[in-house]
């Protein structure tokens, strides 16, 4: 009669996972540097900040003529504006060495650098040439047909964070910021053994009672899909000595990070694999290797989980049931999450997503239109009600919060728009507009698409990256939306973000931020930033600053030959500058806008502009003269309904953390 051995102890699946992970202590493996050509499919191990602005200069989006927008106002087909056409032609790759004067125009090709003095480009289709005169038949506004410096990516902006699986979109971003290599998480080396006299490798002849081994192929391809490196070690028969040798080879010679076996883990006399694993040393002295043998599953009850020590390394081992269906269930339920942790990947996300639109989305009738979207967590009152059942929906239960599908809008030339999108929605071809609140189906670009844990919308700051880095290290996914202070306030008022950074000066009270907090929101103190006038150190028209003193605008900014680079509308810096300028005429270049402090610094450093207003840390990094104007408060508006959320509490804890505050002080911020 065959001896029947009982399992060590049949445990609950959650208990089995807890025991195994406690013994294995899985963390992302060490990083390795790879060339750009080898990065696709790998998991990023570092935060990648752009060393430059993209684009790095103001460039034309079309073939046409660089002009001063004001010279075209009132132009029409019957009464075109007449501009003196300069003989030069601005082509891509050649920096223009000229300044465009009033009433002048110069030909410019797509991708050409916008000349000094110009603030718009008129398309060639809207013009005619006539004996050295350009006839402009349609007016343009400042900024028309121009991609301003840093419009896509600003210098110092973190474009990719650790844990991202690099695909073609992400590698394109790395290329766009000039990275030829990056550090990625080393792929987990997973040794795979099949056991049993009845198993034959695919392609081999079968004797009566034998079957082809399909588990090794399934497990190897599943490991590869999860970012691991499978080490297929073949089939070992029911021979204890041969099995012990195979285990030693996998652990010591092949130096695997994880060892998978299938078969030989039942409670009968054929329980060879579990017995062989039990003979291995445990993860620590006096600790057994086997953590669990027997889990309350159907199918999959014979599962055996263990951890052995190989020098200083802890190697997790799973002995999966031999039946393919049981092996499939137990692999995905127990092994896959551990492999993802070792590979630096987050837990698998839901494969399909139902969401709603935060605002109207127009479309062209007669064509199916696709819109890239980012997923944001919906407000607390935004629950899954009255949503029609659709095939492939996300499976949200009633009363679950519905994610918001925020359409991205950086244009076809933006690298980051495609990289940062979580998915896309399809607007039916006979639909001209989807209304705010409409239910939409988001088709994920990859299986990891999900709403982030924390959404920060408003004014961007390099100091904010310190806070986000801390939250990311704690396992949170954070999405930063640089929309300016007023854009952040609008998002907070509508419950579309968790945190809105602002720095808005109230001219009536000379106080920052408090007067602008919407109803239902709280203001949390942040830190101070010194705003100042930036100019090139070799420009004699600007006086040197006086240490420790506030600084007004020097008289030279009113010189029509001295050009300003302004900030975008809605930004706190733009509002501050308007207050300094007063109601009088605006300086040259006032309509030239940059979307960040880094963009201002880049324009001044390149000579495209002569001065602007930015924070001291950015000016120092760009090697510019900095004349302080005033210390401003960079604070955070938080919707009261979102404040209890765990991610918001972790943000506030990071803001108060002494180590983070020390990092901010070291970077030049005031606390």
TrEMBL record:
Its cofactor is Mg(2+). Coiled coil: none annotated. Pfam families: MoCF_biosynth (PF00994), MoeA_C (PF03454), MoeA_N (PF03453), PBP_like (PF12727). Pathway: Cofactor biosynthesis; molybdopterin biosynthesis. Residues 191-341 form the MoaB/Mog domain. The keyword Magnesium applies. Its EC number is 2.10.1.1. It catalyses: adenylyl-molybdopterin + molybdate = Mo-molybdopterin + AMP + H(+). CDD domains: MoeA (cd00887). The keyword Cell division does not apply. It comes from the Bacteria. Keywords: Magnesium, Metal-binding, Molybdenum, Molybdenum cofactor biosynthesis, Transferase. PANTHER family: GEPHYRIN (PTHR10192:SF5), MOLYBDOPTERIN BIOSYNTHESIS PROTEIN (PTHR10192). Catalyzes the insertion of molybdate into adenylated molybdopterin with the concomitant release of AMP. NCBIfam families: Glp_gephyrin (NF045515), molyb_syn (TIGR00177), PRK14498.1 (NF011068). Belongs to the MoeA family. This is Molybdopterin molybdenumtransferase. It comes from Nannocystis radixulma.
């Amino acid at each position: 009669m065959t001896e029947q051995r009982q399992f060590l102890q049949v445990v609950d699946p959650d208990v089995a996972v807890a025991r195994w992970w406690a013994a294995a202590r899985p963390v992302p493996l060490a990083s390795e540097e790879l060339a750009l050509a080898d990065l696709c499919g790998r998991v990023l191990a570092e935060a990648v900040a752009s060393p430059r602005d993209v684009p790095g200069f103001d460039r034309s989006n079309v073939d046409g003529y660089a002009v001063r927008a004001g010279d075209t106002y009132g132009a029409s087909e019957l009464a075109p504006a007449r501009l003196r056409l300069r003989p030069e032609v601005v082509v891509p790759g050649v920096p223009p060495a000229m300044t465009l004067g009033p009433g002048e125009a110069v030909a410019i090709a797509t991708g050409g650098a916008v000349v000094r003095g110009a603030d718009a480009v008129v398309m060639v289709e809207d013009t005619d040439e006539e004996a050295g005169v350009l006839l402009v038949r349609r007016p343009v506004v400042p900024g028309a047909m121009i991609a301003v410096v840093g419009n896509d990516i600003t210098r110092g902006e973190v474009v990719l964070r650790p844990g991202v699986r690099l695909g073609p979109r992400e590698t394109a971003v790395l290329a766009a910021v000039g990275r030829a290599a990056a550090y990625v998480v080393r792929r987990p080396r997973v040794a795979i053994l099949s056991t049993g006299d009845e198993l034959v490798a695919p392609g081999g002849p079968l004797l009566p009672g034998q079957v082809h081994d399909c588990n090794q192929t399934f497990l190897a391809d599943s490991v590869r899909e999860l970012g691991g490196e499978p080490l297929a070690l073949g089939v070992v028969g029911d021979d204890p000595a041969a099995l012990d040798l195979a285990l030693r080879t996998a652990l010591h010679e092949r130096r695997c990070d994880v060892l998978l076996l299938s078969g030989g883990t039942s409670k009968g006399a054929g329980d060879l694999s579990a017995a062989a694993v039990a003979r291995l040393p445990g993860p620590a002295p006096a600790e057994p290797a086997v953590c669990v043998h027997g889990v309350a599953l159907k199918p999959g009850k014979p599962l055996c989980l263990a951890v052995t020590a190989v020098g200083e390394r802890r190697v997790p081992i799973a002995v999966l049931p031999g039946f393919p269906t049981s092996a499939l269930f137990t692999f995905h339920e127990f092994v896959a999450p551990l492999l993802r942790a070792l590979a630096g990947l987050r837990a698998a996300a839901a494969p399909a997503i139902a969401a709603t639109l935060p605002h109207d989305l127009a479309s062209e009738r007669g064509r199916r239109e696709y819109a890239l979207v980012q997923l944001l967590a919906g407000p607390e009152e935004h629950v899954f009600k009255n949503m029609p059942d659709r095939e492939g929906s996300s499976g949200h239960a009633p009363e679950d919060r519905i994610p918001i599908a925020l359409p991205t809008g950086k244009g076809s030339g933006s690298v980051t728009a495609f990289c940062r999108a979580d998915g896309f929605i399809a607007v039916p071809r006979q639909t001209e507009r989807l209304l705010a609140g409409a239910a939409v189906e988001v088709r994920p670009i990859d299986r990891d698409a999900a709403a982030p844990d924390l959404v920060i919308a408003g004014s961007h700051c390099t100091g904010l990256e310190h806070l986000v880095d801390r939250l990311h290290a704690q396992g949170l996914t954070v999405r930063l939306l640089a929309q300016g202070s007023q854009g952040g306030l609008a998002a907070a008022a509508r419950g579309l973000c968790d945190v809105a950074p602002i720095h808005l000066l109230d001219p009536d009270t000379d106080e920052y931020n408090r007067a602008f907090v919407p109803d239902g929101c709280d203001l949390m103190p942040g830190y101070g930033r010194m705003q100042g006038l930036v100019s090139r150190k070799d420009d004699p028209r600007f006086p040197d600053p006086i240490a420790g003193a506030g600084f007004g605008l020097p008289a030279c900014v009113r010189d029509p030959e001295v050009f300003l680079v302004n900030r975008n509308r809605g930004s706190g810096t733009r509002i501050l500058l308007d207050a300094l300028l007063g109601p009088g005429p605006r300086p040259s270049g006032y309509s030239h806008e940059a979307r960040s402090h880094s963009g201002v610094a880049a324009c001044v450093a390149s000579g495209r502009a002569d001065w602007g207003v930015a924070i001291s840390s950015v000016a120092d990094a760009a090697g510019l003269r900095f004349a302080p104007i005033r210390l401003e408060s960079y604070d955070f508006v938080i919707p009261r309904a979102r404040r209890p959320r765990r991610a918001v509490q972790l943000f506030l804890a990071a803001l108060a953390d002494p180590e983070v505050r020390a990092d901010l002080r070291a970077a030049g911020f005031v606390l």
